[in-house]
C-alpha cells in the first residue's frame, strides 16, 4: 500500500519527505503539500511515535493515507478536505475520522 502511494506520488512528479510540520490554525499538521518545491511533507514525529508504539503497519497506512490525501489536492487543485479524506480512505481502508483521532493522539 505504501509503495503504491509512493509510486503514485513519483508519477505525479512529487517527492515525499518526513519533516516536522508544526501547527496551522491551532491544529497539528499531519501532512502538507508544498507546490513550489513539489514536496509532500509527512510529520516525522507522528510516524516515529507510531513505529515506537510497535504499530509499523498503521504507520505505513498513515503515510499512505497522507500521501493520497495530499495527492488529491494536487491532482484536482481543490482544498476540499472531505473529498481528499474520502479519496485517501478509499485507497487505504482507513476511515478518515479514525485516522485523524489516532494520529492526533500521538501528537500530544
Q: What sequence of helices (H) and strands (E) makes up the elements?
A: HEEEEEHHHH
**Architecture, according to CATH?**
2-Layer Sandwich
Question: Could you name the CATH homologous superfamily?
Answer: Metalloproteases ("zincins"), catalytic domain
Low-pLDDT windows of residues: none
- Kindly give the count of domains: 1
Describe the structure.
The chain has 108 residues and is of the alpha+beta class. Helix content is 58%, strand content 17%. A three-stranded mixed β-sheet has the order 1-5-4. Strands 2-3 form a two-stranded antiparallel sheet.
List key phrases describing it.
Zincin-like, three-stranded mixed beta sheet, 17% strand, two-stranded antiparallel sheet, alpha+beta
Helix-strand layout with pairing:
Layout: H1 2-11, E1 15-19, E2 23-24, E3 27-28, E4 31-34, E5 39-43, H2 44-52, H3 56-76, H4 81-92, H5 96-106
Parallel strand pairs: 1-5
Antiparallel strand pairs: 2-3, 4-5
Helix pairs in contact: 1-3, 2-3, 3-4
Concise overview:
This protein is an alpha+beta fold. Helices cover 58% and strands 17% of the residues.
Amino acid at each position: 500500500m505504501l509503495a503504491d502511494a509512493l509510486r503514485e506520488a513519483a508519477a505525479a512528479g512529487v517527492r515525499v519527505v518526513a519533516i516536522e510540520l508544526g501547527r496551522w490554525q491551532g491544529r497539528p499538521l499531519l501532512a502538507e503539500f508544498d507546490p513550489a518545491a513539489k514536496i509532500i511533507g509527512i510529520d516525522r514525529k507522528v510516524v516515529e511515535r507510531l513505529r515506537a508504539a510497535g504499530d509499523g503497519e498503521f504507520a505505513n497506512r498513515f503515510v499512505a493515507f497522507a500521501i493520497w490525501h495530499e495527492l488529491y489536492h494536487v491532482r484536482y487543485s481543490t482544498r476540499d478536505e472531505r473529498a481528499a479524506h474520502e479519496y485517501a480512505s478509499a485507497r487505504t481502508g482507513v476511515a478518515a475520522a479514525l485516522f485523524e483521532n489516532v494520529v492526533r493522539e500521538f501528537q500530544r
